[in-house]
Amino acid sequence: MIIEVSVPMLLSDCTKGKTRFPLEAETLGEALDRLATDYPLLKRHLYTEQGKLRQHVLLFLNDDNIEWLERFDVPLQAGDKLRVLQAVSGG
């Protein structure tokens, strides 16, 4: 399946200057693995040294935050959208 991935402009230096791009994957887990493989600089922003998703990174599959998923073997459909967002805090 071809899905659309979007990242904030702040991370576009990790994705060869792209903020939106197609990605081929059958499951959400495969899409995340593919992102880490195709864009190794992005991997550092997504994952901790222990391989866990970073707490300040929000990932949405279509309109759903994937934070609550126990497993990422969710099948993807053509046209799904995976959005990478960074939580902002401060005062």
UniProtKB/TrEMBL annotation:
<dbReference type="InterPro" id="IPR052045">
    <property type="entry name" value="Sulfur_Carrier/Prot_Modifier"/>
</dbReference>
<protein>
    <submittedName>
        <fullName>MoaD/ThiS family protein</fullName>
    </submittedName>
</protein>
<dbReference type="Pfam" id="PF02597">
    <property type="entry name" value="ThiS"/>
</dbReference>
<dbReference type="InterPro" id="IPR016155">
    <property type="entry name" value="Mopterin_synth/thiamin_S_b"/>
</dbReference>
<dbReference type="InterPro" id="IPR012675">
    <property type="entry name" value="Beta-grasp_dom_sf"/>
</dbReference>
<dbReference type="InterPro" id="IPR003749">
    <property type="entry name" value="ThiS/MoaD-like"/>
</dbReference>
